[in-house]
Structures are given as C-alpha cells and as structure tokens.
C-alpha cells in the first residue's frame, strides 16, 4: 500500500526549516500566484512562464526558493537509505560523478559521499537564499548583477539531486508511493530551467531518456 507522503515527511527529523516569503511583499504575492497556477491543473509548461509585467529576477528567486524547499524534502524522505556505505560517492550511475567545491572548506573539487555532498549542498543553498546581498527581500533593493549566474549554479546542483535520487534510489520512491509526486516536481523543475535556459544542456544528459519519456 502506498504510504501517505505527509506521513513520511513528518517522520523525518533531518529536514531544515522551510525558507518562507514575508506576507505582504511582492515576492509573497508572486509565490501565491505560482502556487495557485500549480494547483489549478494548468499545463506545467504554461505555469513556469513569466507573468506579464513581472520582474524576471523576482520570478526566478521565487522558484529557486520553492525548488530548494521541495527537493530538500524529496531527498530528506530517503536520506536514511542514502548512507556512506550505500552511496560512498556522489554519483548518477557509473558514468557521472559529482565533486564538491566551495569557497571555504573545499577549494579544490573533492570526491565525497552522496550524503556528505547533499548536506553541504543544502547548507550552501540555504546560506545563499538567506543572504540579503544575494536574495534581497527589502522593497527597492536590487538583485546583484550576477544573480542569474548564482541561480544557475544553484539549479545545476539541485538537478544533481534528482539525478542521484532517480538513478540510485528509485526503488525507495516506488516503495513510498511517491513516484507521481517526484515526477511532477521534476517536470516542474525541468520546464522552468528550460524556459529560462538556466542549466547547461550537458548537465541534463544523465536523465535525458527519462526526461524525454515524461516531459514530452
């Protein structure tokens, strides 16, 4: 019997607090608009398009934060099955291996286990979206000039979570009855990054066959 996703999510203690938008702000209104479109049953390709008159940076910011929340939740549901033993390398099958690099502890690309990579990734993204210099929340404060470049890096790394989950933990997705939910999240993510050309096509190769099957 398929498990209730809410029950699965509630049992996991590894989830970090969700990043939320302040009520009354323009970004909160955009977030509500995006969520309403999702729940209305509209085609996901239509849902990701920039609403007339809205700022593209605001639209991207809202989605980056939402995708971070959703993908963090998806990985969290199967974190217990992704261990140093089962996944000693952050990979997407035998052909793709992802190394971690940052500006602090790992200045050179480092080969890490999947759970270690994921922990560093979620901390790194959380730090960025809570940084007012990168994701400003105050009215009238502009986004930095490199904002879309930062978002490209975030989304590229989040895509790798999908790669690892689909290739190494698909059995867990099935056993939890979460396939439809994860597929919908993936399709939403995929259509968004394609709409705004935010992730290099070469990064999408590991899931190319699956994407062609469920997104076209």
TrEMBL record:
> Mind telling me which SUPFAM superfamilies this protein's record contains?
Mob1/phocein
Annotated Zn(2+) binding lies at 82, 87, 164, 169
Q: Which UniProt keywords apply?
A: Metal-binding, Zinc
Query: Which InterPro entries does UniProt cross-reference here?
Result: MOB_kinase_act_fam, MOB_kinase_act_sf
* A Pfam family that the UniProt record links to this protein: Mob1_phocein
| Chain segments annotated as transmembrane | none
Which superkingdom, per the lineage?
Eukaryota
Which named protein is this?
MOB kinase activator 3C
Lineage of origin = Eukaryota, Metazoa, Chordata, Craniata, Vertebrata
